[in-house]
Amino acid sequence: MSTPPGLDASASPPPPGSGTPLRRNRDYRLLWTSQAVAEFGYYASTIAFPLLVLAVTGSTAASGLVLGTIAAAQLLVGLPAGALVDRWDRKRIMLCCEAAQALAAGSLVAALLFGAATVGHMVAVAAVIGVSAALFEPAEDAVLPRLVPDDQLSTAVAMNSARGSLGQLSGTAAGGFLFAVGRFVPFLVDVLTHVAAFVTLLFLRVPPRTEAPRPAGRLVAEVADGLRWVWGHRHIRVTAACAVVLNLFFSAFYLVVIVLAQSRGVPSGEIGIMAAMLGAGGIAGALAAPYLTRVLSPYVSIAAVFWVLTLLTPVAAVAGSGYVLGAIFAAMALLPPTANTTILTQQLLLTPDHLRGRLSSVIGLVTGVAAAVGPVVGGLLMEVLPGTAAVLTCAAGMAVVTLVVSASPTLRRFPRHRVDDGVPATV
Fold first, then answer.
1. What is the average pLDDT across 362-378?
2. Fewest CB within 10 A of the end CB: N or C in the chain?
3. Residue 255 to residue 224: CA distance in whole angstroms
């Protein structure tokens, strides 16, 4: 197998499980299972967090502060976290993150049981969650190519996407029910799931890195190296821009549709089904992604996401049923996992191992900012425009971006790597 551009074959020994089906790769299964469990607990506690703050303080502002702390901590720590992931032992980072989240959630359970929960304590717990996510995600991304062979990487990425969608759907569905059982129950479940993930990760075998540890004291320079790497590679730069725009427009559109549905008298139960259908579409899309990445060219898989959103977004302006809107969400969620799989696989194979943590942190930062700004844009649109006009404004913006994406020479020449059957593929 030829070495992808930018990789030194001598520095990347074949991962365990090469030549065997991914489902029989012991270490990938351990990683996948550990995070499937942990993500269920994470989403169950995240959906319960604003309910808890409201129950304890009665303040929506305090609820926003706690939830905002998770996102703010993840964004603030994102860039240095990637550099630290490239400097430190990645398995140890993942273990420390799981332990930190278990301890933080455990402290909140204890405070609730003794009636001592405060906003300050909950903000601190939220900060631990955000920092842990900022460290864990690039560590997992960087470890993945060392656990699975190159020709199975796209399938592994797709299965991780399915895992995330499944965790979000099941965890958020269970979180409200668990909170109704007892205020501390969702957070106790979070403790147990992170402990289970920690124990599972103890048995994970990650091939040792052959390069010497990076010297301490150069964190800013290492962050700058990561930024230069992303900016200096056209394929990474262009696909990152695609992800930013997609996150921005979709998160704005999502809020606009939710507010519009409420204003049209759609029952809250139907709105909940709308959100569930979005998650279900994401799961179906992730399961289909390994097949679609084989039959679609990278250009088609990326451009198709934008065309589907462009064509379906205006339909929401006239849809009066929550079920119809949910079907639109589900259809919109089907193709992004294929595009994400194509893009992330190419990025990981292109990027040398000692830069993969920084790659993940940079991409995570820019897409996270877009996802945070999008609801603000959607809220402003609903303030100044009627609901239908706000939807059509989102559709017009998406249409312009879709034309730009479709005409991009970089995306038309996007490389395709070997696929799971081991046969070289051409675009």
1. 84
2. C
3. 35
**How many helices (H) does the chain have, and how many strands (E)?**
15, 0
403 and 301 in a common domain: yes
Q: What whole-number distance in Å separates Cα of residue 240 and Cα of residue 231?
A: 10
* Cα–Cα dist 109/107, whole Å: 5
Q: Which of 11-25, 181-195, 313-327 has the lowest mean pLDDT?
A: 11-25
Same domain, 241 and 384: yes
Between CA 362 and CA 93 the distance in angstroms is: 18
Nearest-angstrom CA–CA distance, 288 and 295: 11
| Cα distance between residue 363 and residue 138, in whole Å | 10
pLDDT per residue as tens digits for the range 2-39 = 333 333 333 344 555 455 788 889 999 999 999 999 99
Q: Phi/psi of residue 406, each to 5°?
A: -65, -30
Mean pLDDT calculated for residue range 142-148: 93
Which single residue is written with the structure tokens 């270490």? Answer: 27
What single letter denotes the amino acid at residue 281? Answer: G
Residue pair 41/204 in contact by the 8 Å Cβ criterion: no
Give residue-wise pLDDT tens across range 322-334: 889 889 999 999 9
Q: Are 281 and 329 in contact (CB under 8 A)?
A: yes
Domain residue limits at 68:
24-206
Q: Are 149 and 27 in contact (CB under 8 A)?
A: no
To the nearest 10°, report the CA torsion of 19, 22, 24, 29.
140
Q: Does residue 4 belong to any structural domain of this protein?
A: no
Using an 8 Å Cβ cutoff, are 406 and 309 in contact? no
Q: Spell out the alpha helix ranges (H) of 151-233.
A: 153-181, 185-202, 219-232
CB 143 within 8 A of CB 90: yes
Q: Tell me the CATH number at 38.
A: 1.20.1250.20
Report pTM: 0.83
